[in-house]
Amino acid sequence: MIQQSDLPDTIAIFPLSGALLLPRSRLPLHIFEPRYLQMIEDCLKTPGRLIGMVQPNVVPGREGPGLQTIGCAGRITQFSETEDGRYMITLAGMSRFRVVKEVDGFAPYRRCDVSWDGFERDLGKDEQDCTFDRDTFLNKLSRYFDARNLSADWDTLQEADDELLINSLSMMLDLDSEDKQALLEAPSLSTRRETLLTLIEYTLRGGQEGEMMN
Predict the structure, then answer these.
(1) Cβ proximity of 99 and 15 under 8 Å
(2) 80 CB-near residues (< 8 Å, 6+ apart)
(3) Residue 7 in 3-state DSSP?
(4) What percent of the chain is modeled with pLDDT above 90?
(5) Which run of H or of E encompasses 32?
(6) Which GO terms describe its biological process (predicted)?
(7) Where are the domains of the chain?
(8) Which 8-state DSSP code applies to residue 207?
(9) Per-10-residue mean pLDDT for the chain, 214 residues long?
């Protein structure tokens, strides 16, 4: 098992709005911009093959997008190249991190010094949510899917482990970047589930305070 001391102090950063990676989850990515093609090639040469996924953040007075302070590093576990030179990769979520500072250099992509402190649990075993009322949650989720005209494999959702269910939905649902960031920063699985349920209920209310839609 990877220890926190094995993680590097500096990693490549991929700022992608709306894309959420969580520990012990997997995120497929389609890479086509030249600077990020170079990033993948460079990362594949490193022992950890780690890329930091971070939400962009608008900073007043800054030219270009800033970065949220917390992201999640993923290890490249699958890689393929298309005939026209694009890369298809899969990142396996390893651990969240806190951005310390950006690093100047000659790379065409962004790199940051990061701290892994406070995220020791991310490298451990799957989390359990002992207070999870699955029936109530799935009922709300069904109403959310109906409101968005979405379909789902409900047998698979019902059988999924707590962490797989909550993290997969957090990553897949069409939520604002700020909401994705809140889900990323949740200190525990139960907090993430409560945050996700609040966002689902907010959508069912039509984004307004008041009684939930029937």
Answers:
(1) no
(2) 87, 88, 89
(3) coil
(4) 76
(5) none
(6) proteolysis
(7) 2-121, 132-205
(8) T
(9) 87 95 97 97 96 85 78 97 96 97 92 96 92 92 90 87 95 93 96 96 71 37
Q: Computed from CA positions of residues 32, 34, 36, 39, in that sequence, does the dihedral angle turn out positive or negative?
A: positive
Continuous segment of H or E residues that includes residue 39: helix 34-44
Q: Ramachandran region of residue 138, left (φ > 0), alpha (ψ -120 to 50) or beta?
A: alpha
Give the residue from 95, 78, 90 showing the smallest Cα distance to 24: 95
Q: Which CATH class is domain 2-121?
A: mainly beta
Residues ≥6 apart with Cβ < 8 Å to 137? 193, 197
Could you tell me the two tokens for 177? 């970047």
Contact 110, 168 (CB under 8 A): no
User: Please, are residues 25 and 95 in contact by the beta-carbon 8 Å criterion?
Assistant: no
What DSSP designation does 64 have? S
